[in-house]
Amino acid sequence: IATEKADGTSCTVWNDQDGFHVCSRNFELKEFSESGASNVYWRAARKYSMDRLPIGAVVQFEIVGPGVQGNPMGLQDLEVRVFNVRRIGDMRLFPYFDTVIFCTDHGLPQASFVTNHLACSPKTDDDLRAMADIKYKNGKPAEGIVVRAMNSTWSFKVLNLNYQD
After folding, report:
1. What is the mean pLDDT of the chain?
2. What is the average pLDDT across 18-39?
3. 37-43 CB contacts, 8 Å cutoff, 24+ apart
4. Terminal Cα distance for the chain, rounded
5. How many CB atoms lie within 10 A of CB 33?
6. Residue 78 CA neighbour count, 13 Å, CB half
7. What would the pLDDT profile of 35-94 be if each residue is shown by its tens digit?
8. How would you label 86-120 residue by residue, b for 16+ Cβ within 10 Å and e otherwise?
9. Taking the CB of residue 63, how many other CB atoms lie within 10 A of it?
10. Nearest residue to 3 (alpha-carbon basis) of 128, 101, 148, 137
11. Rounded to 5 degrees, what are φ and ψ at 158?
């Protein structure tokens, strides 16, 4: 399947016996900075009540909206786009449809569905580039797509050559 690659900032959250954890791409983050202001990662996690996720669930998502990467999607509010869900025990990615169910059950927006492999059957790099030539809802060229196996054993990104950051 292919989903929209949202241009934002990556975040990972999980619950375990030690509590709720929020991470940027490289660091686990405290909820409040020295100034006392909540950072964008924690704001997004709190907006979607991710601290209520089941113990052992690991959720990876892109944070998009005002103040993030210039907000190319033109959103009015901070939002998330979930792209992966795992369990701490084995760390295997949930298959696509299990991720859809998990996100639906927990009120989490997913990366937007673009197409499935049976419908697109790309044969060449040019076919993939054409698939990635999509637009955000505001009409601006999107960053591209993420293509993944239905069982989530592999994935790759295809950038939109018309995207301008």
Report:
1. 91
2. 83
3. 40/9, 40/67, 40/68, 40/78, 41/9, 41/11, 43/78
4. 25
5. 11
6. 15
7. 656 789 999 999 999 999 999 999 999 999 999 999 999 999 999 999 999 999 888 899
8. beeeeeebbbbeebeebbeebebebbbebbeeeeb
9. 23
10. 148
11. -125, 115
Q: What is the dihedral of CA 63, 67, 72, 74, to 10 degrees?
A: 100
Give the pairing of strands 113-115 and 144-148: unpaired
In the chain, the amino acid numbered 150 is M
Q: Which tokens sit at 37?
A: 């202001």
Token couple for 155: 């994935």
By CB atoms closer than 10 A (0-12, 13-18, 19+), residue 155 is: middle
